[in-house]
Amino acid sequence: MKRDNVNYAVVGVFVLLVFAAFIALMFRLTGHAGPADHYVVHYANVTGLKFGTGVFYEGYQVGQVERITPVQLERGVHYKLDLSVEQGWRIPADSVAEVVASGLISQVQIQIQQGDSARSLEPGMEIRGIEQRDLFSALSAAASGINDLSQTGVAPVLRTLDARITEVADELVDFRRRDLSPLVRGLHQHLNGELVPQAARTLASLDASAARLERILGSDNERRIGELLQHADQVALGLGDLVQRVEQTRQQMDGVLHDLDALIARNDAAVDEAVAHARAALAKLDSSLGVVDERIGSVMYHLEGSAQQTHELTRALRQNPARLLRSDAVPATAVPP
After folding, report:
1. Under 8 Å CB-to-CB from 102, ≥6 apart: which residues?
2. In this structure, are residues 62 and 86 in contact, taking their beta carbons and an 8 Å threshold?
3. What pLDDT sits at residue 5?
4. What pLDDT does 40 receive?
5. C-alpha dihedral (92, 98, 101, 102), degrees to nearest 10
6. What's the first-to-final CA gap in the chain, in angstroms?
7. In 3-state terms, what secondary structure has residue 120?
8. Is residue 99 classed as helix, strand or coil in its secondary structure?
9. Domain positions in the chain
């Protein structure tokens, strides 16, 4: 009988030891290995975070997430996270708690990045939080930025350039029609309508004067008249040369005016052709921007679909990583219970 009591006592002590070891192991696995300090951090999104999520300080695990509490604010819902950290662990006041994931399908964790402040946070104080960065969201934001740039940056510049080129071309055409052409016509009319007839009238007047002098003067002044006529002839020859030079000048001016008209006509065609090419180039560029805009929308649609599928896959694998190693289907040769 006494031997049986001893056996029962040994068995009881063994069971108590096993139970104590089990309790110690559970505390160890859940992060309650000893006394801890509590801190607070706020996030707007707690995807992947839950009770027991590890808290790391520069890569070394110092605690875990104890509680996640929703907080209703005027601008929406934020989440308050209570973190338990090893008691006495010094955290600088300018440290930040960032939600990170070490791999594509790995579980998220809270990484505390050490600050440079000499002042330490007291237990119960708040650690500044940084949201988790999403690669696909960044790609979507970049594509949206390119689309906005094409709509608000490049297109207005092209429209302004087109309007400016059209305005300059219209000003050139108006200058040719309003100023240059009337000036050329005025010079032509002045030469043909005033200078040449005036020279002809002057010659006619000189001839009439010579005839009247010949009738008026007698034989006594024949010599003088001869000399006078000789001088008159010289003057007439000089005037003839002058008229000839004036006529040559008029012909040269006609050539210059003709060259000016041809130059203006050639420049008018060149300006019109340049404006037409510029407008065609702008139309092609606008069409290319439209095609790029449509292709960017399609690419972003496929990227968003791929991002959603990848997110669902990673979420499923984070919740149950064993799916990578085994299947949920029961083998056909399994023996029913």
Report:
1. 109
2. yes
3. 65
4. 93
5. -30
6. 41
7. strand
8. strand
9. 32-133, 138-319
